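Researcher: Structure for this, please.
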Amino acid sequence: MSTTSSKGKTLAGRGMVMLIFCVAMAGLMLAGAGMAARSIAAVGVMHPIMNPPRFTEAGPCPNCGMMVNMWARTRHAFTLAGEPVETCSIRCMADMAMRADARPADVKAALYLEPEKMVESGQAAYVIGSSAVGTMTMVSKIAFADRGAAEKFAAENGGEVAAFDAAFDRASKEVDMARAKISEKRRATGKIKEPAETDRCTTCGMMPAKYPAHRAQILAGGDSTFHFCSTHCLVEYLAKPADYLAKPPEAKFTWVTVYPEGDYDYAGGMYYVVGTGVMGPMGPEALPFRKKADAEAMAAKEGGRVKRFAELTAEMVGWGAPAGGGEK
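Model: Predicted structure, token format:
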């Protein structure tokens, strides 16, 4: 009797321990779930904003091509080299500043929780690295009207509070690393598609896959991609799209090959050198550089001129000139 009773008590004791353990674990799991739910609820915002009201008159971000109004929570307005600019994010502002080798001035930041409002950068406080989603970066940097509002958000959603200069410097240091990740994501999501050997240049019919140093492409509605063997053919097509397609689609993104690295990037963010002796598959090229200084150095060396994408014309890239038959 005593042995059986002892075993019973032992089993009962073990059962009680297991029950307590299970209750404790369940409590921890519920607490964790509650914390996650609280974090999500605390952020409680849609970013990007689908079918947004009109927060800004800006169109595509001049650095990455995304629609600024959709990403209004993280947009920044500023002047760069005397020109007014509005980007989708502090990351794109930092990237543009590095490309132009100029510091942005008169900076205003949209408030993350009130995207219809913007404040001077000197007034704004940023939360870096919270659970809230940022734009064009792995580490979000979102703006608030003052330090108090930023600290309240960080207490609920994590992250560190910083002034504009610290947030901008952090964004600048992350540009190169972010670019590699962005390029990977663009390919993974189909925004950029490597041309197959069966693809043909929309303008001339040549095979873009054979010309990795100069090829370009347009991502259109319905995620259809139109390939080009060169900027020479891309610029000609954009000048007269109806000459090459019965129903020219609206371009969502235009990608060009960065010279001489060879990676695709958003066409609108590049500096182009035209009027040089550098030849692509169809003749003279508009050579895309990320950095203005690199483009200027190339122009000085080769006798060309530096232009932005919106300024390019078929005449500038020598459309109608004989094909180069090679690359210099």
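Researcher: Any notable elements?
Model: The longest strand covers residues 105-111. Residues 193-311 form one domain.
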